[in-house]
Amino acid sequence: MDPDSAEDDYWEFDMLDMAEYDIPAMIERIRDVRNNTKRDDVDCMKVSIVAHDLGASNIVTALSIATKA
Hints:
mainly alpha; 2 helices
């Protein structure tokens, strides 16, 4: 998809979509990168999140969705 094109659905998402898909994907990516290091003493099971405004709202919503699953 092209973000500069007005003809596609690139920008068709809302806060719930970000909380449901983007936040879990970001956390999983952080854990994958960290766990795929060559160090045996690294185990990334916890991720600290610092957020403000929309990011904080997305985190709370994502955690709410995750606890229902």
